[in-house]
Each structure stands twice: as C-alpha cells, then as structure tokens.
Amino acid sequence: MTAYFPEVPKIQYGGPKSRNPLEFKHYNPDETVGEKTMKEHLRFSVVYWHTFSNPLSDPFGAGTAQRPWDDGSNSVANAQRKAKAAFEFFEKIGAPFYAFHDRDVAPEGRTLKESHANLDEVVKVLKDEQARTGVNLLWGTANLFSNPRYMHGAATSPNFDVFAFAAAQVKKAMEVTLDLGGAGYTFWGGREGYSTLLNTDMKRELDHLGRFLHMAVDYKKQIGFNGAFYIEPKPKEPTKHQYDSDAAACLNFLRTYDLLPHFKLNLETNHATLAGHEMMHEMEAAIGSGALGSIDANTGDPLLGWDTDQFPTNIYLTAQCMLCILQMGGFSTGGVNFDAKVRRESFEPIDLFYAHIGGMDAFARGLKIAQAILDDGRWQDFIKNRYASWDCALGHRVESRQASFSDLEAYILPKGDAARNVSGRQEMLENLFNDFI
C-alpha cells in the first residue's frame, strides 16, 4: 500500500518529559482517569473537510497546502486516493473516529444522480479502510452551503426545488452514514438564516426548517438508523444571522417544533465566542436541557472576528470543557471532534500531525485537571452551599411547582427583610482552579 506519510511513525505516548514533537506528552489512550480510559473519555475524531479537503486558501490568496495525495482533479479516483491517505493519518495519530460532509469525501457530479454514484464509489473505500484500521465514523453530514444553489439557504430557501434537492442530498447522506456504521448525523445550517429581513419571511422559513427536520426524523425511523441526530449552532458567517445562532436559540427552536426528543447539540468553541458566549456557557445551556451530545474542538483568535477554527491549546478551555462533560456523565454517541485547520503558513503534511498532537494533549490535560477538581470536591461543595437556603421545605415546594406568591409572602413578612447575602467568592474559586492547572 502506498504510504502518504512515510516519514511519520505511529504516534506514541512519550510522557511529559519527551522532546519529540511526534510523541504525545499527555494523551495516553490506555491511562485510566476516573472510571474510564482517556480513549473512552475523549473519543477523538478527525474531520475530513479541514484536514484533507482544505487547500488553506483565504479571501486574499490561493491555497498553500502541499497534499501529495491530491492531484487537484474532481475525479472519483482522486477522492478514493484521498480516503486512503486520510485513513493512514487516522491510524498513525491514533484517532478512533472521523467525521465528514458528503462533498468532502466524494466530488459533486453534474446531476444529483451522478453525485450519488460518486459517493457510492468512495464509500466502498471508506468501508474497506474502516474494516482495515478499526477507525469508525463519529458522524456524517451533508454540505448544504457550498454550491451556489444554496445561496438563499437549503431547508429555508424560498426556492422549493432547492428545498427538495437538499432533502434528497440529506436522505443519501443519512443512508451512507448508516451504511458506514456512523454513531450520529449532524445538521449544520451553513446558510439557514438571512442577510436582510427586507426580503425574508422568517416565520415561513422556520416552519420549513422544522418540517425538513421532522421528515429527517421520519426517514431515520424508516431506515432503522439508531444513531444520534445533532444540531450545530453558529451565529453568523456567512449570513448576518443564522437561525441556529447559539445553544439557547437551537433549544427554543427544537421545543417550538416538538423536535427536542429527537435532537441533541454538537457545540463548537469558535461558534460560541462568535455568539458572544464562553464555551462553558453553551455546554451548560445544553446540559441543562439534557441536550449536549458532542463537541467540536477548536478555538478562535480573539483579535479576529470570524471563524478561524484553530486547534485548541488553551488548557483552561479544555479543562472547563471536560469538567462539563464529566459532570454530565460523559459522552454516549458523541466525542471530541477536531473541527480545526492548520494555519495557512503551516502547509506541509507533517503539520497536520503537530496540530492534532497538540490538540489531543491539550484535551488530555484538561481531562486530568477536571477529574482532579471533581475528586477534590471543594468546588462542588461551594456551589452546593451557595444554594443551601433553597433546601428548606418552602424552597423545595417552589422548585416542585407547589408554592404560590401568597405562600412566599407569608414566609417573608415575619422576617422583615431577606437574609444577608453571602459572597460569591469568584476570586477564590479562580485561585482554586489555578491550583489544579
């Protein structure tokens, strides 16, 4: 078999003192943290689009990426070769999962029928490579944003034919995801939003989006796909406003259209910051509704106002992410998916390894720190004690919807005033967190 990364061995765990840039310093897949191994906790996934389909172009210049497996053609043979290079990478980096859009793995044809046929030919290779390596599909999805037909959206397009085309494309992508044993399927509304309300019937577009997702749920049952369905929030770019703008907007939409029982959220740090939130906020919002399913692992540059999709290296960020994930009991079908791309200046194939090693080490450190904080117990105890006044009989009655304003007035009148507040101790808790970093 042709080797596309001949100079790179299988990446091993070298430990914190290793000076080899092609070794893990902190990610040891078989090391037990709490009750699971790191591999089981983190469920790392490599994305196809940034890692194998991104030429590293930007609005000001052509692509710089050196990808010896890619001849630049829009051929099935080129896509099949790319698939083999991808699995060599997955195997050498030690990622148990990968994720893709349909148009990442196979070229779009002149017609929908031809596109379906192209995808089928590449799926044969993906299936063989999965069997050879043991790497599995975390989730699949359909690219409903790149082709000019989707300029006004896909499920929210004012053009009914575009809506129908998008449905057919998703139908095929779901079938392929099922065929490859995917653990889930993600809906990312790349252009499901508006640039101006002067030409938009927002209510009708949202109704169409809700109907589209209900049809997907129906087809999921029809074909016997038992994987999870995810919605991925993003506030803007390319549209001024996208309907899945953040976790709260997605949860509200899912409840409004009676879809919440069928969907969880796939959250991304860079999308959270573009929405004006921290990733921990988005995760807690989803967890509060029992709807956190998976995360995309990346970060943005605070000096740039767009989706830079950089690899995560901030240990505070990864520790906060893993604290949320551990507290909710861990992933079931989701994982830590590296929706991240190397910088345009990092154009050589080996840079893909350096980037993923750094991201995997950062999340391994975050996992160990989060577990240590939970084992210590002081952080949870502080939060529990901060709300201790609610543990009275009337507090429980309020929380269980059994108390009224009159009950509360009768309780507080004899007191004359509310009890004194207790300090939030933010700085002390930040110091505590730093002790574990």
Tag the structure with descriptive keywords.
437 residues; TIM Barrel; 2 domains; eight-stranded parallel beta sheet; two-stranded parallel sheet; 45% helix
List the helices and strands and how they pair.
Blueprint: E1 12-13, E2 23-24, E3 32-33, E4 36-37, H1 38-42, E5 44-47, H2 48-52, H3 76-93, E6 97-101, H4 102-105, H5 112-133, E7 136-141, H6 160-179, E8 184-187, E9 193-194, H7 202-223, E10 228-231, E11 241-242, H8 247-256, E12 264-268, H9 269-274, H10 279-288, E13 292-296, H11 315-327, E14 336-338, H12 350-376, H13 378-386, H14 393-399, H15 405-412, H16 426-436
Parallel strand pairs: 1-2, 5-6, 5-14, 6-7, 8-10, 10-12, 12-13, 13-14
Antiparallel strand pairs: 3-4, 9-11
Helix pairs in contact: 3-5, 5-6, 6-7, 10-11, 11-12
Q: Could you characterize what this model shows?
A:
With 437 residues, the protein is an alpha/beta fold. The protein has 2 domains: 27-376, Divalent-metal-dependent TIM barrel enzymes (TIM Barrel), CATH 3.20.20.150; 392-436, no CATH class. 45% of the residues lie in helices and 11% in strands. The chain is built from 16 helices and 14 strands. It has helices at residues 38-42, 48-52, 76-93, 102-105, 112-133, 160-179, 202-223, 247-256, 269-274, 279-288, 315-327, 350-376, 378-386, 393-399, 405-412, 426-436, and strands spanning 12-13, 23-24, 32-33, 36-37, 44-47, 97-101, 136-141, 184-187, 193-194, 228-231, 241-242, 264-268, 292-296, 336-338. The strands form 4 sheets. An 8-stranded parallel sheet has the order 7-6-5-14-13-12-10-8. Strands 1-2 form a two-stranded parallel ribbon. The chain has a two-stranded antiparallel sheet with strand order 3-4. A hairpin with a 2-residue loop joins strand 3 and strand 4. Helix 3 packs parallel to helix 5 (112-133). The two termini are 44 Å apart. The model has no long low-confidence stretch (mean pLDDT 97).
